[in-house]
Amino acid sequence: MSSPVTAVIVGAGHRGVGYANLSIHKPEMLKIVGVADPDELRRRKAAEKFGVPEEGLYETAQEMAQVPQFADAVINGTMDLDHVPTALPLLEAGYDMLLEKPICPTREELLTLLQTTRRTGRKLMIGHVLRYAPFYVAIKQRLLAGEIGDVYAVHSTEAVSYHHMAAAFIRGRWAHRSTNPMLLAKCCHDLDLIAWYYSGVRPAYVSSMGARTVFCEANAPEGSGTRCLVDCDVEADCAYSARKNYLEQKLWAPYSWEAIEHIEEPTDEDRERSLREDNPFGRCVYRTDGDVMDHQSVIIEFENGSTASHDMITGTPRPGRTVHIYGTEGEIEGFMEDGAFVVRHADARAGEEYSEEPVDVSVTMDGHGGGDLRLVEDFVAAVRGQERSISSTEILDSVYGHLIAYAADEAMTQRKVVEIEDLG
Ligand SMILES: NC(=O)c1ccc[n+]([C@@H]2O[C@H](COP(=O)([O-])OP(=O)(O)OC[C@H]3O[C@@H](n4cnc5c(N)ncnc54)[C@H](O)[C@@H]3O)[C@@H](O)[C@H]2O)c1
Prior knowledge:
Blueprint: E1 5-10, H1 14-20, H2 22-25, E2 30-36, H3 40-50, E3 57-58, H4 61-65, E4 73-76, H5 83-92, E5 96-99, H6 107-120, E6 124-126, H7 134-144, E7 151-161, H8 162-170, H9 182-197, E8 203-211, H10 228-231, H11 242-248, H12 268-276, E9 295-302, E10 307-316, E11 320-327, E12 330-335, E13 340-346, E14 354-360, H13 366-383, H14 395-414, E15 418-419
Parallel strand pairs: 1-2, 1-4, 2-3, 4-5, 5-6, 7-10
Antiparallel strand pairs: 7-11, 8-9, 8-15, 9-10, 11-12, 12-13, 13-14
Helix pairs in contact: 5-6, 6-14, 9-14
The structure holds nicotinamide-adenine-dinucleotide (NAD).
């Protein structure tokens, strides 16, 4: 049996540590030998959890890149704006890398990363975990088998639930358009899936429209205030109540308690006090300084004339992703959260309009439909030079998925159709 791939965690936050958990579930595949994080508490906790010795600990990725390479790969779980500045020196130092999505907020940085990856010959995989969810794997298998012929149109939607929207994009750290346009931050998964269905075909033209019309002060209910637990008369009836969401339903921990992460074992009183005082999760969702769009649609024309459209809708009661793929010989339609899709074919028999095959993929739905750890396993296979799964991220598809998001923002703001260049 081969020895485990060795990796360092760069950015020991929620996602970096989550991916590194594969080393606990499958120590024969992955061993964590280093951690870089400027946050001393996080660095220490990760070192303890994964048994990393003192000499493997660094304050930053950049510092780690200056010592001779001491692992095969990097799990890069830094925040969006830190991805490229932390990735470049480590790719240059010889590490392969699993890098979280979204890759980066600008086209210029993305192209620098692509050039560096190509020049150094390193393996770079992006955290497009949905490609590993059984639902999407099963769909891709059928497309590859030619079951619906050549794909010429795709329509997908992502409904971001009211509590997810509030936690990440209204009260959380992905609230500002200048650094985190929401289509990029949230739907880069969906745009990547579209690029993956059409793998190898360039998205050529992009158009988009969107707005922020829900999470605005004009929609604040009468009697509401600035903080749910301080000056709101309607808190008890509001679906966005910070008390309900974070103290009672206990949604979105640990994000909701980042503000008191320095307290080793916070009590309920500590949590409630933070929501009253300075925890951003205690704010009224209708009165924040955030400015991301709360709904946006994008239309794409590929170079071979195929098309795709995606709708991002937020603040919905039920979260979920739908997909409808149309091919020359049939169609596939499904809802990921149901763990099921159907494959339809036109049926020329008398009395029949079409035949329909239901496909059940309702296996484990944890961690992005079960995708998170499967992605790390595929990354390990890639680093070992073994055969990769059909989900394996082709870097050019990931790049095109992101270029669609940047182009959509430009198209929406400037009310125009934006062309995407050939990077093949
Ligand atoms: N794949 C998904 O579906 C998915 C889901 C949620 C978040 N994300 C993405 O995952 C990424 C990480 O999110 P998170 O919530 O885990 O973030 P986090 O803030 O919990 O972790 C980031 C860590 O990086 C550290 N860091 C900052 N600068 C550094 C440097 N120069 N060198 C080393 N470490 C540094 C920070 O101190 C922090 O501990 C983000 O890009 C986010 O958008 C992806």
